[in-house]
Each structure stands twice: as C-alpha cells, then as structure tokens.
C-alpha cells in the first residue's frame, strides 16, 4: 500500500484566462531545457511538455517519446506556475524560472538552441496551463496545433459554441447576479419550496438545475439545486471566489444549467488531423455525500451499448470546438433524449489510468498520441530496437474493446475533525481482495492527530484503489464491498 501521492464571461472569468500581469513577473532569462535521448532519432524533433509533474502523465509521455521514438523533450512551465514560483520562493527559484515559457520578446533567444529542430506540439498536463499551451503553440508555430480558442475552457462559451453547430446541448444562462440566477432557475422549472406543501415523493421528482463556475475541475463548486433557496446559496458560493488557475481573478458570474439526468461517462480521445479515435470510455459513479451533490466514488472502464452513440456525439463536439490534434478528456451524460455534453478538457484524464487501460484494453492514450504525431514519418529515422512497441494509427479502432473489468475507486472520507483512528483491518481487507492491484491512502489520512475533512469533490478524497479482474461477478463483489467499507475507514473527533 502506497502512502504518498504521485506528481504534483462576459465569459465569467474577466476574459483574461490564466494570465499574470507582465509587470508582475520578475525578469528572469528563460532558456529551453533540452532533454535529448540516446539513442536519438536521426532527425531532430522536439516535443514541448508544459507543467509535467506526474510520473503517470507527462513524465510517462516523455519517457515513451524518448525510448520509442528517440525524440527530444523540452519541459516548460506555464505563466500560472511562474506566478506560483514567485509566491513560494523555492530554493531552486532561478532554475525553475528559467524553464518558464518564453514571451513574444523572448521567443527569438529561446529558440536559438533549438535551431534545426522540428517543434511538434505543446502538450499541457495541468488545467491551469491549457490557455498558455495554446498561446505557446501559436508563438512557436509548432507542426501540430489547434489555434487559440477560449471556448475550450470556458464552460458557458463551450456549450454555446456546440449549440451553434446544431448539436443538442443543455439549456443554460450565465448569471451576474443572484436575481438573474433565481430567474434562470425559475425558467428551467424550479419553484419556490413551501415547507409542508410537498410530499417527500414530490420533492424527489421535482425539477433540478445545476449551478457551476465557468472555470473549474472535479465537480468543485458544482451544486445540484431543487429550490430557489439552494440556487441562491450555490450562486454565493461561486460569486466573488477565486477563478480556477487565476489566483488574481474573481468570479463575476455563475452558470445555471438544465440538469441532464442520466449516466455520466468520461471519454478519452486522441485526434489526428481531425480523425478522433477513442482511447477509453469510463463510467462515473458519483453520489451525494457529505452535503455535496456529486462526489466521485469510482471511475470504471465501460464497454456497453451506449459507447458508439456517445463517441459519435463527442466527435461532433470536438469538430465544433475546432480540435484536430492532441488529447482530450470529455464528460457526457446519456439522457433519455440522447447524449448531452458536460465539458471537453484539452488534456489527459487526471488519474493514474495507465495500469487499467494497458491491462484491460492493451494500449494507452499517450502511445496513441505519439503515433498520431510521428507515425507518418519515415520509420528509419527512429531507433530500431523499440519499433515493435510503437502503435500503428491505422490499426487502432475508432472505439476500443475492453477485455477485462477495471476501475479506480476513489476513497471518500466521511469523518471530520482530528483523526483518531484508521481502520487498518478494513484497509487490509481491501488490499487482499482478488480484484485490487494497487491501493493508496494519502498521508494526511494515515497519521492520527491530523486534521481531516469529509470528501466533497475529487480534490478532497482520501486515496484510491485500482481494480482489475476478468470475472465481472468477482469484480463487482469487491467494488461494492470497498464502497461499503468507506464510512468506517476513518474516525475523527471535533
């Protein structure tokens, strides 16, 4: 069992999206850190990786690019990370600042050591750096890029762009005041709740709306509301708060959306010149817990009958957002009226999915990406040894087949206060299950005396368990038992 974590408006967000003022950034010379492998490709090719911290994301991609293709990796940091370094003042400040992305004025000097290199693309691991990655691709004129499009990050603009393309989406309104939010909720069918006038059954079948920020991740500040009072509370929870990835910006609005009722799926895709191939489809198990509407309990590989329809729907959405190259991680709800987009993220799935996809599907999104970028080049320029490990884009299916059951179960904490007891018997039971291949509890939840809080979103979970098994019955038995054990793993006192 591991005990440490790997890795590191009007559009609603003041329309500056992740920018830190130029006059606020210290002047530090930037220079490319060139990570050239041996053996190397006979043609000089470089892939730029932004904000790469996790060993199972950017660092894995860098390793595969160097080993399988012999290409050079150039790591850079986004302007968001640049501002973070300034605030934290780490001991290696000068080195980290020198690895930050160049500005227009710094471009020529930054490119000097890379003369003769083909710059493939900029891949960003972090949500906070996605806009900077698009800007940097344009600045450096990389071979593969999608241009700059704020609608790929702003949730309101995203849905409107897809609606304009004639694709079915949820109704929504961007609200700059609580009165606007209340009115939008009424237009979507929310009524004033009058105590004692509704039966419990009527309350359960009443209309819901979703209130969310235009920028955010992992269900953070996303509320499911069924009354005007709850809409007001959700609006105030967002309004005036810090915009995700932009610590100097505050939310000036909140998004009120029609509730798309149905099963939610996540779809990981690699795009090559507008051809979108699905790497994995995941079924979310989200449940109300600890006062939050959408707490992640599990993310499970899925191979059911809806895959073709939701994948085809997503391809239309990606086209509407003008995404032709790279990785996307998107979320879609399958309603009674068909698929409805939640959001598209121009990055990888933010969990350690590699063991699951490699075992249950046979390949992974990063190897797919590399063949999308490099598969059409003369294979003789690459090192001969690992040729058999490279994927052939033409042989990859549009939608994958899942040959075994696999899931990441997110350990939810139900205790609040000072940690007094960790149920080691429960953890040992989980660790010894037939389906469990790995288990991690985060350090904050392992040491008695630490202050812990209940899980309300993906950022406040207590750890995870990875499950893989060929027998669906055994897999489901272990899956259900872990969730049954969750409430008794941690004890705390206030």
UniProtKB/TrEMBL annotation:
Provide this UniProt record's keywords sorted from A to Z.
ATP-binding, Ligase, Nucleotide-binding
Domain of life per record: Eukaryota
Which GO-annotated molecular functions does the record name? ATP binding; ligase activity; metal ion binding
Q: Where is this region: Disordered?
A: 1-22
Pfam families xrefs? ATP-grasp_4
Compositional bias segments (type: Gly residues): 1-10
Is Ligase among the key words of this record? yes
Q: Which named protein is this?
A: ATP-grasp domain-containing protein
Species assigned in the record: Cylindrotheca closterium
């Amino acid at each position: 069992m591991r005990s440490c974590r790997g890795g590191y408006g009007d559009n609603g967000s003041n329309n500056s999206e992740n920018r830190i003022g130029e006059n606020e950034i210290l002047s530090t010379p930037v220079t490319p850190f060139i990570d050239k492998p041996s053996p190397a490709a006979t043609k000089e090719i470089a892939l730029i990786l932004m904000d790469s911290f996790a060993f199972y994301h950017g660092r894995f991609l860098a390793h595969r690019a160097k080993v399988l293709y012999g290409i050079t990796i150039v790591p850079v940091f986004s302007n968001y990370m640049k501002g973070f370094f300034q605030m934290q003042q780490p001991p290696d400040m000068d080195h980290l600042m020198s690895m930050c992305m160049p500005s227009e004025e710094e471009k020529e000097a930054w490119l000097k050591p890379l003369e003769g290199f083909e710059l493939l693309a900029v891949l960003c691991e972090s949500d906070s750096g996605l806009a900077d990655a698009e800007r940097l691709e344009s600045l450096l004129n990389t071979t593969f890029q999608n241009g700059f499009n704020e609608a790929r990050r702003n949730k309101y603009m995203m849905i409107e762009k897809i609606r304009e393309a004639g694709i079915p989406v949820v109704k929504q309104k961007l609200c700059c005041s609580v009165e606007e939010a209340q009115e939008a909720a009424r237009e979507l069918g929310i009524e004033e709740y009058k105590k004692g006038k509704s039966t419990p059954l009527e309350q359960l079948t009443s209309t819901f709306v979703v209130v969310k920020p235009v920028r955010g991740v992992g269900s953070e500040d996303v509320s499911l509301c069924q009354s005007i009072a709850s809409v007001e509370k959700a609006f105030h929870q967002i309004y005036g708060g810090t915009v995700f990835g932009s610590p100097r910006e505050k939310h000036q609005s909140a998004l009120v959306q029609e509730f798309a009722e149905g099963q939610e799926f996540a779809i990981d895709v690699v795009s090559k010149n507008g051809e979108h191939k699905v790497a994995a489809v995941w079924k979310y198990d989200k449940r109300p817990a600890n006062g939050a509407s959408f707490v992640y309990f599990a993310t499970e590989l899925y191979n059911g009958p809806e895959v073709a329809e939701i994948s085809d729907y997503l391809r239309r959405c990606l086209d509407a957002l003008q995404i032709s190259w790279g990785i996307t991680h998107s979320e879609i709800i399958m309603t009674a009226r068909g698929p409805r987009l939640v959001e598209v993220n121009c990055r990888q799935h933010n969990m350690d999915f590699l063991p699951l996809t490699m075992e249950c599907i046979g390949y992974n999104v990063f190897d797919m990406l590399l063949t999308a970028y490099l598969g059409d080049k003369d294979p003789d320029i690459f090192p001969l040894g690992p040729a058999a490990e490279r994927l052939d884009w033409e042989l990859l299916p549009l939608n994958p087949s899942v040959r075994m059951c696999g899931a990441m179960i997110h350990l939810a904490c139900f205790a609040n206060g000072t940690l007094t007891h960790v149920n080691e018997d429960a953890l040992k039971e989980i660790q010894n299950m037939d389906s469990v291949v790995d288990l991690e509890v985060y350090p904050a939840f392992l040491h008695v005396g630490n202050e812990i809080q209940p899980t309300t979103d993906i950022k406040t979970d207590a750890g995870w368990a990875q499950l893989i098994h060929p027998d669906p019955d055994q897999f489901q038995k272990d899956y259900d038992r872990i969730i049954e054990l969750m409430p008794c793993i941690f004890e705390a006192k206030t």
